Structure formats: C-alpha cells, structure tokens
Design the sequence.
C-alpha cells in the first residue's frame, strides 16, 4: 500500500500539471473571453417563454456594456421564484406572471416590479390541422385531443380562465408541466390542439398553426421584471432591466409576438 | 435458502478487529451525502397538515397509480430483461458488445429525451404507433399503458445489468453438469440457472421497481399528465412544487415512506439477508 503511494502522487501531479497547461493554453488563445477579473456577470432568471428574446437582449447588453457578460437561467417562473427565495444568486428576475413575481416580492427580495410585456393565448394546431379546429368551441368535441398546461403554471391558469370566459368545458388528455412541453405535443401531432402563447406559435417557425380567439383578450398575461434587492452585481442589474423596458428591448419582444404593456 | 446466501454464510469473517478508517470515513461521508437531503425534507415537512393532505383523493389516486404502474413495468422488465441478460451473458454472437452498450442507452439518455424518442416511435404519428393506431386502434400516449411503457423503458437496464452480472458470477459448471446429465438448454435455464441467479434477479427487480416508481421525465413526456390516468406521484410532486412547495414535500415523503416499507418487507421475506 505504502509503496504504491508515491506512484499515485506522481500520477496526481501529472494530471494537475496537465490541467494547468490546458488552462494556460485556453487563456492564451486569441478569442478567449477576457479574464475573470475584468468581466462582470449579470445573472438573469427568466421565464422559459422569454428564451429567444432575452438571449437577443442579452447580446445587445453585452455589446453596449463592454466587459460584462449576461448569464441566463431559463425555466418555469414558479421554479425560478422558488430558487430565488431559497437563495440562488440572481440579479434580475423576469416572470411570466404577477403571481410568481409575488413570491419574490413577498420575501422582500425585489421591490416595485415593472410590467415590461404581455402575452396572449392562441390555439395551436398541427400545420395540417387534422381535427379541423377553428375556434375554442371545437376543443370541446370528444374526438378532439387537447393538451393544456397544468393549472399550477401560468399558461394553464390563463387557459382555465379563457375557457371559463368562453363557457367552453373541455376534457384535455394531458396537463403539461410547461408551455414548451404543451407545444411539443402539438408539433409531434400527438394532440389535435393546445392552448399556448402566441409567441410560442411564432417561435415554432411554422411547425404549428396558430388560431386566435376573442376570449384571449380577457386573460392577457402580464410579464413583470425586477432587479433583485440582493443582486450580487449591483447596479448592472438595474441597467439590464432598463434595457429590457427601453424601446430597443420592446422592439425585440414585439417582433417575437409579445405585446407592449 | 438461496445458494449464494449459503456461500456467504459459510465464509469466515475477516480475523482483524476494526474496520480501517480509510474505509469508514468515506463510507460515513457517502451515507451522509445520501441521507442529508432526506433529513432536509423531514425538517421542512408541514407535519400538522399531513393527515388532511393524505386524505385528499388525488394523492391516493397518484400513489395507487404509481405503485400499480411500477409493478407492471417491473414484471415486463423481468419477462423481457432476464432473457436478454441471459443472451448477453451466456451466448456469443458478433456485435454482442454493441448490444450490451445499447442496453444501457436509457441510462445515459436524459429521461425527457427518452420520452420524446418513445413518442417518435410509439406516438400517434410515430414509426410503429401509426401502424398500431390504424390496425388496432391503439394509441399509447396519454394512457396508463403509456406510463408503464415509459417506466419500463427507463428501468429495464437496471434489471438487465444486475442479472447479467449475476449470470457471469454464477458457476457455469452447474449448467454443464446438468447438460451432461441430459437436460436441454431450456431445462437447464429453468431448473439450474434461474434458481442460481434468483438473488440477482430479485436485486435487479428491486432496483428496476424503485427506478420505475421515481420515473418522471419520460413519463410526463410520453404519457402526459392527467390525474387518475397518467399522473403518478413524481408528476404530482413536480406540479405541487410549482405552487405549494409544502404539499410537494408531503407527497415526496409519502412516496418515500411507502417505497421503503415495501422494499424492507420484501427484503425480509425473499432476500433473507442479515
């Protein structure tokens, strides 16, 4: 046992040396990111439905603020809110519903959130629309397979309200955990229709067809954003929020199908 | 008593007294690492609301669905997985190594991707699913059968790998002796090999069942989530976490308690370990 040790130690040293060398090589390559000391990172927790638009806004932020990097954590708003309350080191929180933002403001971790954009529901059907769905009432037909978001997530809560407003009672085949999962079921043709956000229909790039319906106007979803009070990056967090609510940010969002607040 | 149990008992204990620190310390750390998250759940559990939450019909429904689907999935895994393990351990054919690697695919694949893969094959517009739908009118997604399929897909490798290991460790001379006495290969398998590796099968089935019981990603992707139909406990826990983290903790503890009780009682009865 003892005799083996030196050989192991040597191996460990060799590995360590190799790691150092590799790291050094990485650092000296021309297009490596600037060294950690000069880069300030803004960590943004954002609703999954903001993935495309916020990535774009993040690039604009990095271009406008040299020496900064934006790091995103996209996910279900409720999960993100829980993570923030449990002490995740986030600078900015952009939620898909006021209710999930409230979790964070109730814990005094954010003050005065701003509504920066709004999203509306649409019926999504496979591009060939096999069940010939034209409106909300068609979803109640027994032969039409419908996917909804679960009521616990914002798109599901909105769907329930829209159906109530329309007086349509449906039995979905599944209550999905988030809007992207709901959309996937339509894209794969496993369901005939689903209620998702307009932005998701646009983001699918033609794989699904969107059908607007009038009751959607009654359940428009507000998206609040706030710099967090314990933001590790301080005022950079507020600068990111400012960019999102600026004309530049709003343009990115409306192009993706969001509506101005 | 199983042959391997006899083997272990007849073996003398090591003579030296104390377990070496080099093993005890990492073992203690390992145990703490596994058990502390559970302690976290226990500390945060809202004990006062426990009875009322347990009485909620959808909790019992999800629990029942979880137990039933995990058990059926395990049965399917045993029916298909034991023969597969036997083929891998006791026959030789070109490409066996590739086949063994393929068996572990569901272990490596993120379960959600596994669920999408199942949809692409068994979904309404999937390669096989299309035919199932048009010929028999069977569609698996969004059905309880779909839950079983997703769980069996993810859990089967655990059984196959355990049983294959047991088959490799079992002495083939018993099989050979039986064969020289005139037993056919099927009889040898049934009367000699199977009893020899029974503890391995039991261990594999336990792993398989536990994995199926906790399955989340493939299930929600392939079978969807609808209370009473496809909403198993892990799915109920995940959705409860969105709005009521405390309810999620209660549900997780129920699932844990039930599975620990079942596994502990099975172990006493069948595996008969000290």
Sequence:
């Amino acid at each position: 046992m003892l005799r083996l040790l030196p050989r192991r130690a040597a191996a460990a040293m060799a590995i360590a040396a190799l790691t150092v060398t590799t790291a050094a090589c990485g650092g000296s390559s021309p297009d490596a990111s600037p060294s950690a000391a000069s880069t300030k990172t803004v960590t943004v927790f954002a609703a999954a439905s903001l993935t495309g638009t916020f990535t774009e806004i993040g690039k604009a932020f990095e271009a406008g603020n040299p020496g900064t990097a934006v790091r995103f954590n996209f996910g279900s708003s409720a999960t993100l809110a829980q993570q923030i309350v449990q002490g995740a080191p986030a600078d900015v929180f952009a939620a898909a519903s006021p209710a999930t933002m409230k979790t964070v403001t109730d814990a005094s971790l954010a003050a005065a959130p701003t509504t920066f954009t709004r999203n509306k529901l649409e019926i999504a059907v496979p591009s060939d629309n096999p069940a010939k769905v034209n409106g909300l009432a068609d979803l109640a037909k027994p032969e039409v397979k419908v996917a909804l978001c679960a009521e616990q997530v914002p798109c599901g809560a909105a769907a329930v309200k829209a159906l109530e407003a329309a007086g349509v009672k449906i039995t979905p085949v599944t209550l999905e955990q988030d809007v992207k999962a709901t959309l996937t079921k339509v894209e794969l043709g496993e369901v005939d229709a689903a209620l998702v956000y307009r932005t998701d229909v646009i983001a699918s790039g033609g794989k699904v067809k969107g059908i607007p319906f009038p009751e959607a106007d009654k359940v428009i979803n507000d998206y609040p954003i706030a710099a967090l009070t314990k933001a590790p990056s301080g005022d950079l967090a507020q600068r990111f929020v400012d960019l999102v609510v600026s004309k530049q940010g709003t343009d990115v969002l409306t192009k993706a199908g969001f509506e101005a607040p | 008593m199983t042959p391997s149990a006899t083997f272990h008992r007849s073996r003398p204990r090591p003579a030296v007294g104390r377990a070496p620190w080099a093993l005890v310390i990492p073992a203690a750390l390992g145990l703490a690492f596994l058990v502390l998250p559970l302690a976290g759940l226990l500390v945060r559990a809202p004990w006062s609301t426990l009875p009322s939450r347990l009485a909620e019909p959808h909790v019992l429904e999800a629990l029942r669905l979880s137990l039933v689907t995990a058990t059926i999935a395990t049965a399917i895994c045993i029916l298909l997985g034991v023969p597969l393990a036997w083929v891998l351990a006791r026959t030789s054919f070109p490409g066996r190594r590739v086949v063994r690697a393929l068996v572990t695919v569901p272990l490596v694949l993120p379960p959600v991707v596994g669920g999408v893969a199942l949809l692409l094959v068994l979904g309404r517009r999937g390669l096989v699913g299309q035919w199932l739908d048009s010929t028999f009118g069977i569609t698996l997604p969004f059905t309880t059968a779909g839950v079983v399929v997703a769980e069996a897909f993810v859990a089967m490798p655990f059984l196959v790998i355990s049983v294959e290991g047991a088959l490799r460790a079992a002495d083939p001379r018993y099989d050979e002796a039986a064969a020289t006495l005139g037993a056919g290969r099927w009889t040898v398998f049934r009367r000699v090999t199977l009893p020899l590796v029974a503890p391995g099968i039991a261990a594999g089935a336990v792993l398989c069942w536990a994995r199926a019981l906790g399955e989340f990603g493939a299930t929600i992707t392939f079978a969807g989530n609808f209370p009473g139909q496809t909403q198993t406990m892990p799915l109920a826990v995940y959705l409860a976490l969105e709005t009521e983290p405390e309810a999620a903790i209660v549900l997780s503890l129920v699932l844990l308690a039930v599975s620990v009780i079942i596994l502990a009682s099975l172990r006493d009865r069948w595996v008969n370990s000290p």
